[in-house]
Structures are given as C-alpha cells and as structure tokens.
Specification:
The protein is an all-alpha fold and 348 residues long. The protein has one domain. Helices cover 68% and strands 0% of the residues. The chain is built from 13 helices and no strands. About 3% of the residues have low confidence.
C-alpha cells in the first residue's frame, strides 16, 4: 500500500513543477526518484504508479462525487447541467438503486482490469521475450518543460485519433459480425445510461471498454515510449478529464481548459443516439465533420421524447402489461359466459 501511495505523491511533485524550483528542490526530487528506481523494478514502478495515479485522480474523486449525488440529491441537482435527469437515479425524489451502484462498481472494476492487462503485457515483454519495458523507467528525469509539453501534446493527439477510429468504426459499426457483436455490447451497457454522472466514464462491458478506452489511452504512450514521469502526467490529465467531463455538472473546474466543452460533447453523444462526438476532445470530430451541433442535438432529443423507442425496456414492459390486462379480461369474459350457460341449462 505504501508503494501505491508513494509513487503518485512523487509524480504529483513533478506535476507542480515550475521554473521557480530551487536547486535544492530539484536535487531532492532527483534523489527520491533515484532511490525509487534502485529499490523497485521497472515493472513495479510502472504498475504501482499507474494504480496510484488512477486512484488519486479518478477513483477517489469519482466515488466522492457519486456519493454526493446519491446522498444529497437536492443539493447536487442545482449543479447538474440537465437537472434531475443528471442524477444517478434520474430524480431527486427517487433513491439510488442497486443498478446505479453496479454501474459505479463496474466502472472501477474496469479500471483495474485495464491495469491487469497492462501488467500482463509487461510480464510477457520483460519476463518471456526479454525486452525492455513498454515505458521508460530510468535514472534520467524529464525536466525541460517544452520537451514534456511536446510529448504530452503528441500522446494526447494520438489518443484523440485512435479513440475516434475505434469508437466510430468498431463500437458503432454493425456492418461486420464481430463489430456488430461489440457494438451490441456497447449499446446494451454504456448507452443504457440516461445521462453521464460520476464514475460512468469507465462503465461498459469489458470488451468494448478495453478497445474504446484502455487501448487509446495506453497504446500511444507505448508507441512513443514515454518516460514514466511523463506518462504519470499524461494519465493524470486523462483521469481528471474523465472525472470532471462525465460528472454531469454545469460548472466545470478548470473550465478554461475546454473541460466544459468536453462535458457537453459527452452528454450529446450519449443522449443523441451516438449520432456523433466520437472523440474525447472533438478535434477528430471537427476534422471529419461528425460534431453534433446545438441544433442537431436539440432536434434529436425532441424526436426521442416524442417518439417511443419500441426496443426500449419501458415500451416492452408496457406491451407486456397491456397483454396481461387483456388476457385477464378475456378470461373473466369466458368465465362469465360459462356461468350463464350453466344457469340456462338448469332453467331448461
């Protein structure tokens, strides 16, 4: 447990790095990092560093926001972009059901499934194929701000492109049998949500989740072979983005950094039948002209409200209820006819 907490704490020190750092602080940081490298293998540094960053920047804040929505809905609804609909239960008068807790549980479980897959890949690379680790873990540390910024920009751009391709052409593609199966899982799980709320960023069936979330996040970092410290910064940015953009709140902290726009894009994608907004930041959608505009989003939501979806559970439940009522009426009519026939026979 100490490893899990110590590693992200060290990475957080570098996240707050500024040119005003004194020589003493840089020496202290370098000595701490060197001690960490000498006392742990690259595999452990990568594994526990990833777990720590995810816990610190996604799991804990998402869990707190989810509990806030569940325990104090009357206060949370004031901050929601879609009012009561943005709450986990869909109404401040309705208690959070087991289903909403299952959504949060699956989201947190998917986080650790992705880290387990990352650990399995590293075990094969290092233990079986005898190659170097996927991420760079060395005594040298990245301290030049523009080099760090360049690597972060490259890996975020690659994530944007890869997430768009997988999301649009795999998770929402019913042309081929395999993509149709994956798409059906994605539709049944993630697109069963009414709106995004805390912890839903990682809610999905594990197969579409690993393809649509874990692969676009990890593969660019492996392709560029980021330094572990740069990767921790990158993973922190992604985790904070997912925590805040999927919270459903109208006012975003760090809203100047496009988080408010990202949050509205996520909501439009979920609430408008996946008609667009396939990439995390919207750059790929803008380039491929798949952005859902305000007019298109409003029209699609209105159409959804006016037209009942015959495949929805509510519509099917209503059909079953009406069929049962009709069956009961027919049965009662038949019994009444039998009674009348018996009475007429006795009279004769």
């Amino acid at each position: 447990m100490n490893r899990v907490l110590a590693l992200p704490a060290l990475f957080f020190c570098l996240l707050t790095y500024t040119p005003s750092y004194t020589t003493f602080n840089l020496i202290f940081f370098y000595m701490t990092w060197t001690t960490l490298i000498l006392s742990h293998s690259p595999f452990k540094v990568e594994l526990f560093g990833s777990i720590g960053v995810r816990l610190l920047f996604y799991v804990l804040p998402s869990a707190l926001l989810f509990l806030f929505d569940a325990l104090v809905p009357s206060a949370a609804v004031l901050l929601k972009a879609h009012g009561e609909q943005g709450l986990p239960s869909g109404s401040k008068r309705r208690r959070v059901r087991v289903q909403e807790f299952k959504v949060a549980g699956w989201a947190f479980l998917n986080i650790f499934i992705s880290i387990a897959v990352q650990a399995a890949i590293e075990t094969l690379r290092i233990g079986y194929f005898k190659t170097r680790s996927a991420l760079k873990v060395s005594f040298t540390i990245p301290l030049i701000p523009w080099n760090i910024a360049f690597h972060l920009a490259c890996v975020l751009l690659l994530r944007e492109i890869l997430a768009y391709i997988i999301h649009r052409f795999v998770l929402h593609n019913e042309k081929y049998r395999i993509t149709r199966y994956i798409s059906s899982l994605h539709q049944t799980w993630y697109h069963s949500l009414h709106t995004p709320y805390p912890s839903t960023a990682h809610y999905d069936h594990p197969i579409p989740y690993l393809l649509g979330n874990a692969v676009p996040t990890l593969l660019p970092a492996v392709f560029l072979r980021l330094h572990m410290i740069t990767y921790a910064m990158y993973l922190s940015i992604v985790s904070l983005e997912e925590t805040l953009a999927y919270s459903g709140y109208s006012a975003m902290p760090m809203d100047f950094f496009l988080l408010g726009g990202i949050a509205r894009r996520v909501e439009k994608h979920l609430m408008n039948r996946a008609a667009g907004n396939f990439s995390p930041w919207g750059i790929a959608d803008w380039f491929c002209q798949t952005t859902i505009t305000e007019e298109e989003g409003g029209a699609l939501i209105t159409e959804t409200d006016e037209e009942e979806d015959e495949s929805s559970p509510v519509f099917r439940g209503r059909e079953i209820f009406e069929a049962k009522v009709q069956e009961a009426l027919d049965s009662h009519a038949k019994k009444t006819q039998r009674k009348h026939k018996k009475r007429s026979r006795h009279l004769l």
